[in-house]
Amino acid sequence: MNRTLSIETIKKVGETVKLNGWVNNRRNMGKIAFLDLRDRWGIVQVVCVPNELDEKSQAALKDIRPEFVLEIEGMVQARGEKQLNKDLLTGGVEVLAKKIAILAKSETPPFEVANEERQANEELRLKYRYLDLRHERMKKNIILRDKIIRGIRDYLHNEQFIEVETPFLSKSTPEGARDFLVPSRNYPGKFFALPQSPQQYKQMLMIAGMEKYFQIVRCFRDEDQRGDRQAEFTQLDMEMSFIKEEEDILSITEKMVKQVIKKIGGDYQMTFNKFPQIKYDEAMAKYNSDKPDLRKNKDNKNELAFVWVVDFPMFEYKEGDKRWGAGHHPFTAIKDKDLSKLEDKSKM
């Protein structure tokens, strides 16, 4: 018998199914036990009546606790009117268990998985990350990320972009932060650098005639941790040939963002139909931030206020290193009005 997903049970009333999943919760009512079985698609209630189970299953039922991994065979049946659970997609059905097998036992978890109201501290959650990812909220975050990445790929492929993977081990190049270095086994004393961005590779692709490139790429920067700065992160990397104006890049990116938001669904609303543009100096003077929150309702997490902050300074003072360094990668088109400064040494 093939496995049935929890969400598929709503269309299989009267049929025998096989379920696999984790015990989200157990409730005992006399001799009858109710198991909430969880898989990636949801939760389905399993009714365990001793007289309906074989001897092996009855013995297994006595030991079952939350987070045990089970395989259950049983009959899908409709719930009575008073037993409906409108909070679950499967709340109109339940499975009457006939066979129960324990695939993996679980020790008592260090924090509750079923009850997200009781949040453990971050250190404990990260120590047991595989358990933390069982939380419904964390699962939804990962699924949302997947939808966003899929939406980006669909849009850019439709715009004739080519997705190309570039190397991770390469020569160190000038960027805005320190490199992570990897020692070379074949050349003692020599080092590879993990890329802060695929900048040089994508420029090579433009020279090669690819014209439109993108990549969902992992980047590495050896810098102090902050809320918006991590040692490794994922970014959308793009490059296009024959672009005459900055507006061409902003336009294709803005259209992509709007389409992705539309595709992922949800209750998101955008503050601006056309993304406004603010210069860096104006943003810092007016909002004291280079990423101002322009939402009308600051308490509405579903309101999205995208804004282009342009004309970032090329250099910034690195307090930790006591030096001036690139504020972002230096492979940036120079404004036409500043081209003459390249030849005037007094302005350099």
Automatic annotation (TrEMBL):
The keyword Protein transport does not apply. The lineage of its organism: Bacteria, Candidatus Kueneniibacteriota. One of its GO terms (biological process) is aspartyl-tRNA aminoacylation. One of its GO terms (cellular component) is cytoplasm. Keywords: Aminoacyl-tRNA synthetase, ATP-binding, Ligase, Nucleotide-binding, Protein biosynthesis. This is Aspartate--tRNA ligase. The gene is aspS. Residues 144-294 form the Aminoacyl-transfer RNA synthetases class-II family profile domain. Belongs to the class-II aminoacyl-tRNA synthetase family. Type 1 subfamily. The keyword Nucleotide-binding applies. Transmembrane segments: none annotated. It comes from Candidatus Kuenenbacteria bacterium CG_4_10_14_3_um_filter_39_14. GO terms for molecular function: aspartate-tRNA ligase activity; ATP binding; nucleic acid binding.
